[in-house]
Amino acid sequence: MIVSWSNMICAYHLLTFRSILCAKTNHRDILTIGILFNGAVSQSEFPLNSTIFSNNMEEDNFLTLSTNIRQLSNDDSFEASKTVCSLLDADEGLVAVFGPPTSPASPLIESIVKNLNVPYILTSWKGTSYDGSETFLNFYPDNERLSKGIAALVQSLEWNGFVIIYETEEGLVRLQEVLKGQSWMRKTNQDFIRIRQLNRGPDYKPFFKHFKNSTETNFILDCKTENILPILQQVRTLGMLDIHFNYFLTSLDAHTVDYSSLDTNANITTIRLFDYKSEEFKNAVFKWSLSQLRTYNKRKELNPYTIKTETVLFHDALLYLIDALNGMPQLPKNEKTSCYGFDSLRDGTELIKAMRNREYLEPLSGPIQFDEHGNRVDFNLHLYNNDEELLATWSGLNGTTTIARNYDETTSAAVSNLIKIKVIVSTRIGEPYLMKVPPKYEGEILEGNDRYEGYSKDLMDQVAEIIGFTYELVLTENNNYGNWDEEKKRWNGLVGDLLDKKAHLAICDLTITHERQQVVDFSMPFMTLGISILHKYPDKRGTDLFAFLEPFDISVWIYSATLYLVVSLILFFIARMTPGDWENPHPCDENPEMLENIWGIKNCHWATLGTIMNQGCDILPKGISSRMALGMWWFFALIITNSYIANLTAFLTKDKMELPIKSAEDLAKQNKIKYGLLRFGSTEAFFKSSNDSIYQRMYMNMKSQRPTVFEKDNADGVQRVCNTKNSLYAFLMESTQIEYAIEKKCKLKQVGNWLDTKSYGIAMPINAPYRGAINKAVLTLQESGNLTKLKKKWWKDVRKGDSCEDVRNKGKDEKEGDLDLAKTTGTFLVLAVGVSIGISIGILEFLWNVRNVSVEEHLSYWEALKNELAFATNIFIYRKKIKSSSAESSTERKSDKIENKSIMQNMLHSANSLMNIN
Ligand code: GLU
């Protein structure tokens, strides 16, 4: 079927330029270009009219061109083949055929033209590359190369995972190289490319709803150009078209869609083969407008942005064909061909060869080169964002990607997007990073960010001011920092908020860890720290009566006491055995009737006791063996008493803040002091994944403790350290938090060095375009010293009263080593008890003596008591009369006494010995 408008063109040409044409056609060959369409002729008419008119008007050309346009049936291949044959049969001067966009009839048409050696030119996408035909040329980029180009441009976006959404299987062919992208993804251990087939429209919402609740933010959308807008409009209603989301559209005509109605902050990138802003393109479009005016006698302004890729390729193909035809030394010999005969157009290959070798042409669709099979292998693929800014260009010939924007340009583009929105900043409550502001008066209602204060808020204020955006602080659920919840299979806390697209930024004392960096990005660190131990100075002791016992362990006391008794007994027996200790009781009597041994049990005990008390004794043994035994006891006493004295000083003054542990190793070695840490934080992750045997042991120990030693919040940990008696709990915490805690609670102390080194950073979604801007702002604050000022403000200045440092310095001024009453009470007590016992025994002795006196003097007990009392209390009398009747009877009684010592006398004697009266 001959399309009427082509006739119209000819008629129009003939009418308007009859005289010129008539003059020329006499000397020029007339050739026909066959054009097949299987749909609307659409925009192809613009370059067609314009190029053919220009050629025909060119005086130096030897050719006059005409067109023969046929419409093909889309579904009926047989009908289509008949139409092609009729085209080939109809025209003797047919030089080439422009094939239709790919359709089911394409293979059949291709086989017909191939058999007849007719030059066959295509300008549309084809799922497979040609192989072998010398009469084919496809100006549309080669399928494999295009796929490589798309993959390279996706890669240039540095996404670390994406969803490929395709509408038809054709899309998968186009995206085959992208599917291999796992190799250049940031993480290789997981499946970060998901592939989903789009449902049949027009309702796409259920399909996209699935992604709304996932962590996916990057989508590669391969669909028909006309479906792009309806899809994005529906995606927008789901809230999936904000700054968190990135869309990569694979259609080469995606630029023809008007996205303004979407009013989106999402990052929509499109690819195209040519630059719409170039002068050449604008000139070409202008020429096409003119030709439209000539054709329809009506002004029709063409918008360059509505020009489709195929139109441009059609223009380039015509340009190549006409130039080749005009440049051929001999025109192709046109013989009538027939599908049903075996005639062939002999010079088909010559024309295609001539087209391949065009060198000086400036095609609109960039550089053109074909491989030996007629597939276009050279072309440039440009990546644009929704602000029509060129992001990158991929070259088909050498396969390299050129990033068009420098770092600053990318950053400023991202900032301009950030300024347009209210940035949501996820955060958590935790001193001194973020605290709720207490109302200044009853009933005061604070709103928005005014509800909070702290380091994080101040830092965010300053970052926002530097970049120029407004933001809102939002508290995360359950006050979690952000860790992988094994049960729910998702990240929680601040990290979860970023992944769930609930926030654009996240700030708190959030540690930059390897695991978190797999799923979110961090800004430059704003604080550096390490894990350390928070512990408490030993409690100041109250009244400890037996503090003097502390220098020795209880076992030493028991052994020493036992030895005292045993050595006293040994001395007793040795003294009895050794002759040296049997002495003359009356040294003046040279031949005494009996010898006396003074080493009774009492004296033995007295001698050993005197030595160990460092006091010595007025009686000493004379026998060699007893001296040997007592000498060795002295040696023992020397060491023991001196050790005691040396230790006593240290023990009585040890309230000078001596901590029992000094490092993590000390903690690991003992079991008395329990230690714990914050559950689900980076500190736990450190211990959990550490290869160090000490840290592994510590973690196992912590896990096995009942009740648990883990805490839900750092503040709880600090509280537990404070409240646990005798400093029996230590908390492993980040040094910044420890610094803050010991600033506020003077009895706390950091113990040991950092176990690791890490930093806090502001978190944001991976590859967030505004990352550069945030980094720059943090760096500015760091260089200007503002970060240090902020730390000082929230760690030192904001608290009221003396800082702990002052308190500790004051404490240092006090004289070290002072003993207060509390520690010496026990010694007073021992003295009091000892003296009381002495008094009691003295009274007993006195009463017993009164009894003896009453018997001897034949007085009543009360009378004797009265006399003895009067005598004893008269402090001016130092001599006492022996109140016996005669010296003889007295001597008798005395010897009686010696021989018949009563038990009571022995007792008194012992008491006398004790009082050192022998
Ligand atoms: N800063 C830590 C985190 O981001 C929490 C505190 C800790 O684990 O000690 O997970």
UniProtKB/TrEMBL annotation:
<keyword id="KW-0406">Ion transport</keyword>
<keyword id="KW-0770">Synapse</keyword>
<dbReference type="GO" id="GO:0015276">
    <property type="term" value="F:ligand-gated monoatomic ion channel activity"/>
</dbReference>
<keyword id="KW-0325">Glycoprotein</keyword>
<feature type="binding site">
    <location>
        <position position="516"/>
    </location>
    <ligand>
        <name>L-glutamate</name>
    </ligand>
</feature>
<feature type="binding site">
    <location>
        <position position="682"/>
    </location>
    <ligand>
        <name>L-glutamate</name>
    </ligand>
</feature>
<feature type="domain" description="Ionotropic glutamate receptor C-terminal">
    <location>
        <begin position="422"/>
        <end position="797"/>
    </location>
</feature>
<comment type="similarity">
    <text>Belongs to the glutamate-gated ion channel (TC 1.A.10.1) family.</text>
</comment>
<keyword id="KW-1071">Ligand-gated ion channel</keyword>
<feature type="binding site">
    <location>
        <position position="683"/>
    </location>
    <ligand>
        <name>L-glutamate</name>
    </ligand>
</feature>
<feature type="transmembrane region" description="Helical">
    <location>
        <begin position="632"/>
        <end position="652"/>
    </location>
</feature>
<feature type="transmembrane region" description="Helical">
    <location>
        <begin position="828"/>
        <end position="848"/>
    </location>
</feature>
<keyword id="KW-0628">Postsynaptic cell membrane</keyword>
<feature type="binding site">
    <location>
        <position position="734"/>
    </location>
    <ligand>
        <name>L-glutamate</name>
    </ligand>
</feature>
<keyword id="KW-0812">Transmembrane</keyword>
<dbReference type="GO" id="GO:0038023">
    <property type="term" value="F:signaling receptor activity"/>
</dbReference>
<keyword id="KW-0472">Membrane</keyword>
<keyword id="KW-1133">Transmembrane helix</keyword>
<dbReference type="Pfam" id="PF10613">
    <property type="entry name" value="Lig_chan-Glu_bd"/>
</dbReference>
<feature type="disulfide bond">
    <location>
        <begin position="85"/>
        <end position="339"/>
    </location>
</feature>
<keyword id="KW-0813">Transport</keyword>
<feature type="transmembrane region" description="Helical">
    <location>
        <begin position="556"/>
        <end position="575"/>
    </location>
</feature>
<dbReference type="Pfam" id="PF00060">
    <property type="entry name" value="Lig_chan"/>
</dbReference>
<dbReference type="InterPro" id="IPR001320">
    <property type="entry name" value="Iontro_rcpt_C"/>
</dbReference>
<keyword id="KW-0407">Ion channel</keyword>
<feature type="site" description="Crucial to convey clamshell closure to channel opening">
    <location>
        <position position="661"/>
    </location>
</feature>
<feature type="domain" description="Ionotropic glutamate receptor L-glutamate and glycine-binding">
    <location>
        <begin position="432"/>
        <end position="500"/>
    </location>
</feature>
<keyword id="KW-1015">Disulfide bond</keyword>
<dbReference type="InterPro" id="IPR015683">
    <property type="entry name" value="Ionotropic_Glu_rcpt"/>
</dbReference>
<dbReference type="GO" id="GO:0045211">
    <property type="term" value="C:postsynaptic membrane"/>
</dbReference>
<dbReference type="Pfam" id="PF01094">
    <property type="entry name" value="ANF_receptor"/>
</dbReference>
<dbReference type="InterPro" id="IPR001508">
    <property type="entry name" value="Iono_Glu_rcpt_met"/>
</dbReference>
<dbReference type="InterPro" id="IPR019594">
    <property type="entry name" value="Glu/Gly-bd"/>
</dbReference>
<feature type="disulfide bond">
    <location>
        <begin position="746"/>
        <end position="804"/>
    </location>
</feature>
<dbReference type="InterPro" id="IPR028082">
    <property type="entry name" value="Peripla_BP_I"/>
</dbReference>
<feature type="binding site">
    <location>
        <position position="511"/>
    </location>
    <ligand>
        <name>L-glutamate</name>
    </ligand>
</feature>
<keyword id="KW-0675">Receptor</keyword>
<feature type="site" description="Interaction with the cone snail toxin Con-ikot-ikot">
    <location>
        <position position="688"/>
    </location>
</feature>
<protein>
    <recommendedName>
        <fullName>Ionotropic receptor</fullName>
    </recommendedName>
</protein>
<dbReference type="InterPro" id="IPR001828">
    <property type="entry name" value="ANF_lig-bd_rcpt"/>
</dbReference>
<keyword id="KW-1003">Cell membrane</keyword>
